[in-house]
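Changelog note: in this version the structure field was regenerated for every chain. One regenerated record is shown below for reference.
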Amino acid sequence: MRGSGRSHYVLNRGVRDRLLGSAANPEELAALAFAGIIAMLWRDDEANPVPVLGLSPDDFRRLATRWFGAAGAAVADAVAPGAIHPAANRLGEFADLLGLLLDNRTSFVEESRWLAHAVATASLGENHLWQDLGLPNRPALSRLLAENFAPLALRNTGDMRWKKFFYKQLCERSNVNLCKAPSCSECVDYLLCFGPEDADFLPPGTPGGGISGWCATPK
């Protein structure tokens, strides 16, 4: 479950704006997240894969057209058969994240499954999770998770950074101790896990964006 070779996502603002311009409610957090993860992986004039890992082209088409109408259909039409997602070499890690999210959904409608795929895909990026979902700030991400993955969100009682928190949950599932310190407040990596998440994108390899910094040891 420990990550390496993290994917540096770059937001395509034009694609995001086109999608949100066709959304029934462009201020809805789920719409912002779906538009963000699509635009984060979309490159103009390139052979683009389905930008949400784990979805088939047909599944992605339903997502895109249901949320973004004609603009979503145009994006779905432009998916190139056989194109490889930049995080395709990390499908095992993705599957762990997806399973965590699916097990903690607030509801079981199709949109919540799609959203779990989107959040898990974004969790493989370099930056803070709210940035890799194209959301305006961390509070928006916290609301999105509280509304759609309430059992999981409620366990983040210390307001840990969300990517760090997800991987902490995964390691606890696997009976792995994340830090040799007796509590998070005494760990040398405290600021990496609980520090502020500002609007600056992190350069590739920065530990604040991913899970590096855990001192993982078997229990």
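Spot check on this record: The radius of gyration is 17 Å. The beta strands are 176-177, 217-218.
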